Inverse folding.
């Protein structure tokens, strides 16, 4: 693929609803890029329609999108297959590079230059904590029989070149055929298939943390952070960042997963950091059943 003289980059916000949270995030990203990069909502419409929100910044991800209508769509496609959002965005917007960012990511004021810092980077895939994975990784066996090496990353903030998106689409079609012919029972997720397929194909992949200097200690796929507790004197990127209502709602579920993975202490230490005593009491009380169930299982 020949890049145009001034390569075009766009940002897609991967979302399942478009509420005040998503709109505020959209506005924050727009402010970060100051008109140099277009920003779009890419909404999962597989189980519902676009609703009353539709304008030029809206892109639909569903099986009605012609480019991906032939792909296998699992029931949890919006969670499992973040690359489908890339396909939908590419189908609607012609660009050289595509960012995909989740709305529960938060950039500190010191990281306001994040996207613009990569404008001259020609890498085909940028992600946080990109690297080789071994058989202990949950998603390893989903792809290991089909590639020489297995790679993974954290998918809430990623960027792909157009040619990389096109290649991953080919791989999704390949795995769709395997699934429909019952040659595989489990469908790989985004971070395993994207990272593994493009790295094995020789595309240029880079770990964002080795390029953009920032505090990533609050960036996780499992440990929620309460928005009002976050502050940083320099560049920092956090995920997932939730308001109080969502934090309370998701805390017991995330705690359950952490306890199962023997990471309960780390989860509690990081997720409760900065909460006042009243909020700590509320979330602990809401999780009593989780603690009791885990205790019984260990007896």
């Amino acid at each position: 693929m020949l890049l145009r003289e001034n390569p075009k980059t766009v940002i897609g916000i991967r979302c399942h609803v478009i509420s005040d949270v998503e709109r505020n995030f959209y506005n924050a990203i727009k402010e970060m890029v100051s008109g140099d990069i277009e920003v779009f909502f890419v909404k999962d419409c597989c189980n519902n329609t676009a609703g009353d929100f539709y304008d030029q910044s809206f892109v639909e991800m569903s099986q009605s999108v012609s480019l991906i209508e032939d792909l296998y769509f699992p029931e949890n496609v919006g969670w499992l297959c973040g690359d489908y959002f890339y396909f939908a965005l590419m189908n609607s917007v012609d660009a050289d590079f595509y960012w995909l960012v989740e709305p529960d990511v938060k950039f500190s004021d010191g990281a306001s230059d994040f996207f613009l810092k990569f404008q001259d980077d020609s890498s085909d895939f940028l992600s946080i904590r990109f690297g080789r994975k071994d058989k202990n990784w949950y998603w390893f066996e989903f792809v290991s029989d089909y590639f020489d090496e297995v790679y993974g990353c954290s998918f809430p903030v990623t960027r792909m070149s157009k040619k990389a998106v096109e290649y991953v689409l080919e791989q999704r079609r390949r795995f769709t055929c395997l699934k429909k012919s019952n040659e595989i029972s489990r469908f790989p997720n985004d971070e395993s298939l994207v990272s593994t397929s493009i790295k094995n194909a020789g595309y240029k992949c880079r770990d964002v943390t080795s390029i953009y200097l920032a505090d990533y200690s609050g960036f996780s796929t499992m440990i929620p952070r309460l928005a009002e507790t976050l502050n940083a004197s320099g560049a920092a990127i956090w995920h997932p960042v939730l308001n109080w209502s969502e934090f309370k709602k998701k805390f017991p579920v995330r705690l359950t997963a952490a306890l199962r993975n023997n990471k309960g202490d780390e989860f509690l230490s990081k997720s409760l950091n900065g909460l006042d005593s009243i909020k700590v009491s509320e979330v602990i009380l809401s999780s009593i059943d989780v603690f009791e169930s885990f205790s019984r299982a260990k007896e």
The chain has a mean pLDDT of 93. The longest strand covers residues 151-161.
